[in-house]
Amino acid sequence: MKNIFAGVGIRSQLAQIIYEELMKREFITLADILCIYHKRAKGYYDKMTLCNEIGYGELKKAFLDVRSTLNMFSDGCVVDNGKKGKGKAFKYVGEKDDPLAEERKAVEQKRVEDYVAFCKASAGILPMSWFSAYFENTQLLLDTHREAASGESHICSSLEQNLTNIDLLPVFYKAITDKKVLRFAYQRFGQEPFVLTFHPQYLKEYNGRWFVFGDAERLQACEQSAAIREQYKAYNVPLDRIAGDVNVVDDVEYIPAPKGFYQAFFNNIIGVTHEKDAKVEEVVIRTKTEYQHGLLLTKPFHHSQRETLPYGEHGGLWYGEIRLMLEPNRELRGRILLYGEGLEVIKPSSLREQVKETLRKQFEQYGQ
Asked: C-alpha angle with apex 320: 43 to 39, nearest 5 degrees?
């Protein structure tokens, strides 16, 4: 019997969603499944045609796959509510609570095996120093080096991974997991280095650059305002700003981060920066082309992003809109500017003016 959950395409992903929803033993519509797949609010498709939505054709095939497979265990275990069109809903009424448990387990096992194979091939994406630190003296690392040397690698990254101090990633990761305090010299661009006693708590990569966050002792006052946002009490150290050796400090008690601290710290921002006096507010961005709109839906800026206006004609103009709830910062402005004329900030006015001022300066620069 074919495993309907196997594969990486839309059809297998939808089959997983359909099965999980049916196992709740509640009525579910095809529109409900699409809302889950596209991460949209329930009822999003009430006034929209489903047949033009991305994935609808695969959804119908996936539903037939799931229903046929379940009927092999118990004929007639999926019933409908008797309605037609978008109102037609389906419900699982079989005796077993999870009849396809073995099939799903087999897929998960295959994913683990595939992940190991990916790790083996991903030395072109993961920093080689980090990869080597965790697979040291293993056949996996030996095979990886041999394949790279013979030109048999099949994956790489567009980002150059020979970044300054990238080899410190496993050092800081181990210090975090072992709850160890570190001491090193920290040097901001164009300034003299100073020694920092650091309690590493969290690692984050953004835009090809690695940062370590944590608590620090005796940070100079002039550096304090530049390195952290006071209300969070979380120091932000780019790895490429570390000068010299990193040593373990055994006579200082490690200060851990409160549970969930960094999840909250990064929840309302893009990147790593909390700007002074910034607050969470509604950001509305208008897309000027269907391509840019689709690109923004498939590569969202932030987890709070929601489509509020599908791309189309609105009042004689063609556009779409997305809404975000976050703290505007330089990383958000950078992402917006990256799209050029394809995006327009509608609100807040402060962010709109900041983007406008940047564009004005660029225009003056190239207009000279």
From this structure: 35
